[in-house]
Specification:
The chain is mainly α and 147 residues long. It has 6 helices and no strands. Helices cover 80% and strands 0% of the residues. The longest helix is centred in the middle third of the chain and has 25 residues.
Length: 147
């Protein structure tokens, strides 16, 4: 069986199926649905906290697999990442891993870029958005592996 980044492909299939339960409105059991949503959040939070980002790279494809259109999946991923990013940031700052001289200007730039990206999201079609998302994920992966 092929291994991808140390995880078996069945793990990713499991995550997609789990989110499908969470976002399938025909699932009548609210406890099961809430549990599936919370478990998907735990996975994204763990990835984001460990790597300092990247939870959205798991959540967006999983939400699309669960039936959300690309725009809604990306917007939902960003909205749910805000609290986990805040918690991770507090942990990093408390641990002395936040160089303010670099971090504060980067935070200001990220806020401006986030506003610009959200405005651009409104004007971009789902198929183009999906292609761009996949290309960015692929480019980031290639860069991390080879450069």
């Amino acid at each position: 069986m092929q291994i991808y980044c140390g995880l078996k492909p069945n793990f990713f299939e499991f995550c997609h199926k789990f989110l499908a339960v969470a976002y399938n409105h025909s699932v009548k059991n609210p406890v099961l649905r809430s549990f599936a949503i919370a478990a998907a959040g735990v996975l994204a939070g763990a990835v984001n906290g460990f790597f300092g980002g990247g939870g959205g790279m798991i959540v967006v494809p999983a939400l699309v697999a669960a039936g959300l259109e690309q725009k809604r999946a990306q917007a939902t991923a960003i909205a749910v990442m805000l609290p986990l990013t805040a918690v991770s940031a507090v942990m990093y700052i408390a641990g002395g891993n936040f160089p303010a001289g670099c971090g504060i200007p980067a935070a200001l730039g990220v806020c401006a870029g986030g506003a610009a990206g959200a405005a651009l999201l409104k004007r971009t079609g789902n198929s183009v958005l999906g292609f761009i998302f996949a290309a960015v994920v692929l480019a980031a992966g290639v860069r991390m592996l080879f450069f």
